[in-house]
Amino acid sequence: ALDRFQDGMDRLLAYASGAEECFGAALAADPGLAVAHAGVALLAMVQGDAAATRRAIGRAQDMVAGATRRERQQIAALGAFVAGDSARGFALVDEHVAEFPRDAVLVNQASSAIALAGRPDREPHRVAFLERLAPAYGDDWWFQSALSFTYHEVDRFEEARRLSEASLRQYPANASAAHNLAHIAFETQDIDAGAAFLDGWMAGYDRRAHFHCHLAWHQAMFALHEGRYARALEIFDHDIVGASNPRSTMTDGTALLWRLRLDRASEQPLSWRALADIAGRVSRPGYLFGEAHAALAYAASGDEAALARLEDGLRALDGQGHPFAGRVVLPLVEGAGAFAAGDFAGALRHFEPVESEMHRIGGSHAQWEIFEETMVFCYLETGRYDDATRLVSRRLARRASPRDRRWLERASAARAPRQ
Q1: CA-CA distance, 291 to 299, in Å (whole number)?
Q2: pLDDT tens digits, 111-170
Q3: What does residue 44 show for φ and ψ, rounded to 5 degrees?
Q4: C-alpha distances in angstroms, 394 versus 50, 374, 401?
Q5: Dihedral angle at the C-alpha atoms of 223, 227, 229, 232, nearest 10 degrees?
Q6: Do 220 and 237 meet the contact criterion of CB atoms below 8 Å apart?
Q7: Which residues contact 7 (CB under 8 A, 6 or more apart)?
Q8: pTM for the whole thing?
Q9: What is the mean pLDDT of the chain?
Q10: What is the secondary structure of 315-349 as a DSSP string?
């Protein structure tokens, strides 16, 4: 049971396939192994299966009474995150890692939760959280890739690259480290090298792995930024729609098709209805990164009823005291609806007051910036070329994106005096 459980945890932390089978084998050998039930819960959570997540964490809680204190504390903290009580989860993690800093599965979950918790300083906070634990991990392959991700999100690209390359040397199947290198190439606009690396690495990556869809999205993003729109759509059809992880299909598929719309890159109808249907199954009010993307799918497919339900859910969270569901996410959702209806000025009225807080929905720069990109489109369409230039120039100062350069050229040409 221990051997199969450990193999499953390595696979879960590496975003590799086969973790579910490993946990199943561990539980066949020892049905009372609570931490293996927790592993099943984490896999279900990643895929947006709330019912399966609750069942599995419930079994873990039922089985853990006679286990070690380390296991009991781990299950208690994971149970809090599953229940949506992040504040209690973070408090339990802080207490736990003071004694058990090498509880990688709990550290990994806490790191992911920090990214989605909406703190204004979430990325520096996540760096500090992991750096505090670094002495306990040494050159551990998982920790190297976890710390690497936080570094590239605060523009420490060379340190991030070194850590991920070291991680891959130890554990070549670590999709988390490959993911980091894709991000670093994207952020530094080393597009050709990043695309070549990821294409090569993905050739040996099991399509059944829950992270395969997201890495395919990164392949499509490289193609998008090079203007290879047919290739981006080919990746969407082959590797995103119908992927093994429906939550990733919804968020990544929506993020890609929305950008294709911003670029006016396809004259053919896009698969919005399929993404909206998936959103209806996997989104939930507490997962605001997912809700923001579900709104794009609902708006683009014209599903006003689903969009209204989503908005009502955000207002309910706001009424319960949620710190940013109503103040930040709701305006983004309303702005998406206005945009899809062709009311670009109306979309800007929703977006502009929360421009500095858009990042609080969670995800990486490459993900949440989709709302900034929508603002650029709206500025250009409404003739607000100075505002488009301001926003695009700020973006270019961080990343020399070909898409942003094209937008800047369009704004500059429109502002130039006619001869």
Answers
A1: 12
A2: 998 888 778 898 999 999 999 999 999 999 999 999 999 999 999 999 999 999 999 999
A3: -65, -35
A4: 39, 15, 11
A5: 10
A6: no
A7: 18, 22
A8: 0.93
A9: 94
A10: HHHHHTT-SSIIIIIHHHHHHHHHHHTT-HHHHHH
